[in-house]
Amino acid sequence: MPTTKIFVTRIIHKDALDLLQREAKQHSWEIKVWPHSLPPSPLELRREAQGHQALLTMITDRIDQDLLDRLPELKVIANHAVGVDNIDLKAADKRGIAVGNTPDVLTAATAELGLLLTMALLRNLPAAISKAKTNQWGAWGPLLDLTVQLGGMEPADNPPLFGIYGMGRIGQSLARMLALGLQANVAYTNTHGPLNNLNFPATWLASEELLAKSDVLIVTIPSNPNTKGLFNQDTLKKLKVGAYFVNLARGDLHDEDALYRLLEAEHLAGVALDVTNPEPATLGRNPILSHPRAIITPHIGSATTNARRHMGLLSAQNIINYLKSKQMPHQVKIAL
Ligand code: DGY
């Protein structure tokens, strides 16, 4: 019988590789790990993945029809991410290839970054830090450096409404932090209507109403053919003048030029993006990087040691279970 071969497209957490290697030793599987710090190019991926039954992939690996056509031996793909928009799921399903992902281990990390970005944006943290570091502090003043208070129990003039666009795991976790941790006003929209099992106060609004009423819109929906490009110029213009826009999910959900224009026109007060379009962002291709009212981070939502260790373990376990003909801990259900 030919040897089962696994290709891991980046160096992942040591514990995850150890797990994979222990199992591989027992079952005489072969493991190959891409050793470089940059991801394989599409051509390199095509070459390296040849003849493999299992791939442990990253969001930076594009797994499309063309690639799958060249990998007839492929049986399972374990994506080291909760998002699977880098994989053509229908094409994988058509070829009988199982796809796994890693939910429930990066929710807290991503929601925490969402809270951090939202707070930094509303309190204009980058400008405050820069003021102190560049000797611009001058004197303290009662009307200097004023920003937006997020919530609290004290009397508040016009407290902001936080609109969570997508109430999945990350949306709910962030909404809970805002509603219970900060006593902030939270509303949300999602495709399935109001949720009746929330253990914190949050008002469901239809998406148009959420856009019109939110002071801070926070995007946490997955990218798929139905949502790609949703936050285009027309949609973004429905936000209030002076609103803030935060995207924690995927850069291809938003039109970055439109965001830039709306910042310039002072329609938007600020933008925070952990995901850009394209990625990686560069000044030449993502002018929003240099906008003074934009905070951009390099897709670090799940970048805690804890989350990345568990993402590694879960993706390794997805492959191990598949190869041992057991149920994968997280197999993506493909809706055709
Ligand atoms: C995911 O898991 O989809 C994140 O975006 C990558 O960390």
The percent of residues in helical segments reads 25-40%
| Rg | 22 Å
> Uncertain spans, ≥5 residues at pLDDT below 50?
none
Domain count: the total is 2
- How many alpha or pi helices? 11
CATH class category label of the largest domain: Alpha Beta
- Please list the strands of the largest sheet in the order they lie side by side: 8-7-6-9-10-11-12
Bound molecule kinds, no repeats: (2R)-2,3-dihydroxypropanoic acid
**Strand pairing plus helix content: what structural class?**
alpha/beta
Number of strands: 12
Largest sheet: 7 strands, parallel
- The fraction of residues assigned to DSSP E strands is 5-15%
Please state the average pLDDT score. 97
Distance N terminus to C terminus? 34 Å
- Based on Cα principal axes, name the global outline: elongated
CATH fold category name of the largest domain = Rossmann fold
Write the element-wise H/E pattern from the N-terminal end onward. Answer: EHEHEHEHEHHEHEEHEHEHEEH
Quick recap:
By secondary structure, the chain is α/β, with parallel strands linked by helices.
What keyword list fits this structure?
single chain, alpha/beta, Rossmann fold, 2 domains, binds (2R)-2,3-dihydroxypropanoic acid
Written overview of the protein:
With 336 residues, the chain is an alpha/beta fold. It has two domains: 5-105 and 305-325, Rossmann fold, CATH 3.40.50; 107-296, Rossmann fold (3-Layer(aba) Sandwich). It has eleven helices and twelve strands. It has a seven-stranded parallel beta sheet with strand order 8-7-6-9-10-11-12, sandwiched between helices. It has a five-stranded parallel beta sheet with strand order 2-1-3-4-5. Helix 5 (107-122) packs across helix 7 (169-181). It starts with a strand and ends in a 13-residue tail after the last helix. The model has no long low-confidence stretch (mean pLDDT 97). The structure holds (2R)-2,3-dihydroxypropanoic acid. (2R)-2,3-dihydroxypropanoic acid binds at residues 59, 81-83, 106, 301-302. (2R)-2,3-dihydroxypropanoic acid is lined by residues 59, 81-83, 106, 301-302.
